[in-house]
Amino acid sequence: MELQQDPTLLWFIGIYAIVMIGIGIFMSKKVAGSEDFVLAGKSLGPFVLMGTLLATWTGSGSISGGETSMAFSYGILPSLMLMVPTLVGIIVLYVVAPKIRKFGKFTVSGILEEKYGRTSRNIASVIIILAYVGIVSYQMKGFGFILNLTTGMTVGTGTLIGAGLIIFLAMIGGLRSVSQTDAISGFLMVGGLVITVPTIFIVAGGWDEIVANVPQSHMSATGGLTTIQLLGYLLPSLFLLLGDQNMYQRLASSKGDKASKRGQIGWLIAMIIISPSISLIAFASRSLFPNIDPGMALMATTVAMPVAIGGILLAAAASFIVTTGNSYLLSAATNLTYDIYSNYINKEASDEKQLWITRLFIVALGVLAYIIISYFPTVLSVQMYAYTVYGAGITPAVLAVFFWKKVNAAGGISSMAAGVISTLLWEIVLGKPFEVNSVVVAVPVAIIVLIVVTLMTQGSSRKDAVKTTV
């Protein structure tokens, strides 16, 4: 089937954008201070919490990279496997959520500082900003793909428009408005995908026709990938989710533990619907449009279906992208404000000053994200890189805070440094040997360093503690 632009679909995206901007402006008037801006006044009920968790986690990484690119490039089974790390991560967070709320911190860096000291907070802030700006950047490019598909404008121009929308929605009302737009977007996602799956299978001629039109390797368990290469795609999302500051902030923003638990259960159920749906749609797209960019597989199906269904799917795709982008942008700006500005530049900053500085950082980081996306060839490549920088540099150290009482500052800080350094060495210096993503090396290195250094320095840590007490 020939891929042709259908500008009429742009109306659906336009309506979605107008509604989101309107909600953002309305909710921004309810922002009472910096805590309200960052944690929505700790007022999120289970319904809104479920929607914002879902919308934040499922973004361009899923519809332009993740499940979409995996299904198109390697087949249905490897793509379906990408759901497993997410489900495991949600279950672990369900257990950890009460502890996260008990800390009551704005950032993951704040949690790390309480266990490992100020140095860990500084390192964590740099890692989070580095990773999150990367994540925001490929949301912008994903929006560019959408406008390229619907109107024929260049991906670059569409990326610029996406950048403007993402920056505006993050800046205008913080989590107070982002959580509301996320909730609406989350349910739009579920509805759009549920309608699309049977429709695109009918258009593609059914399962047997789809299978006949894809490479034979696409029906194997690994899609032609080695086991170690497949693990390189599965592990990054797990280790990002387990330590993801965005999720921690949202769980801390809930009304209480009961609302938090209900919201997470709803998130788990929604992911069981969404993730396989994306995989199936992209797999059908491989049969219909074998020569397109893998990142456009899901969005390309919008022009093959009736306009109403295609438009709903495209609006859902836009919602995936925008909600994830503004959430990670807000979170990164929070680190700059509370971990760097308030600690080192202006310790006496008023609440109002912190609020406006956060907004300023949102704009600055948004512009940086727009600039760096041009340095990565595909959404999937920057996704894996950003996930691993965070997953190896932050997650082992932060999980140890909750699950290993003996862990000390030397172990935690060493683990963070080892995770980032091994990621950069593998990806940049060595050029990703054997086409294996760095997570396969970086996460084990970070965990081993955490354990070994902690055990080797326990004696000295106790002595230091005694001296401090005396």
Provide a brief overview of the structure.
The chain crosses the membrane at residues 6-27, 39-59, 71-96, 123-140, 152-175, 187-207, 219-243, 264-284, 296-322, 356-378, 384-404, 411-430, 436-457. The protein has helices at residues 10-28, 34-39, 46-57, 60-63, 66-73, 76-81, 83-103, 108-116, 118-151, 155-203, 207-212, 227-243, 245-252, 257-288, 297-300, 307-345, 351-372, 379-393, 395-403, 409-429, 439-469.
Can you describe what's shown?
It contains 21 helices and no strands. The chain has a single domain, classed as Sodium/glucose cotransporter, CATH 1.20.1730.10. By secondary structure, it is mainly α. α3 (46-57) packs antiparallel against α13, α7 (83-103) runs antiparallel to α14 (257-288) and α10 packs across α17. The N and C termini lie far apart (77 Å). The longest helix has 49 residues, at 155-203.
Features:
globular; 79% helix; mainly alpha; membrane; 470 residues; Sodium/glucose cotransporter; Na/Glc_symporter_sf; 21 helices
Secondary structure blueprint with pairings:
Layout: H1 10-28, H2 34-39, H3 46-57, H4 60-63, H5 66-73, H6 76-81, H7 83-103, H8 108-116, H9 118-151, H10 155-203, H11 207-212, H12 227-243, H13 245-252, H14 257-288, H15 297-300, H16 307-345, H17 351-372, H18 379-393, H19 395-403, H20 409-429, H21 439-469
Helix pairs in contact: 1-10, 1-16, 3-10, 3-13, 3-14, 3-16, 5-14, 7-12, 7-14, 8-9, 9-10, 9-16, 9-17, 9-18, 9-20, 10-14, 10-16, 10-17, 12-18, 12-19, 16-17, 18-20, 18-21, 19-20, 20-21
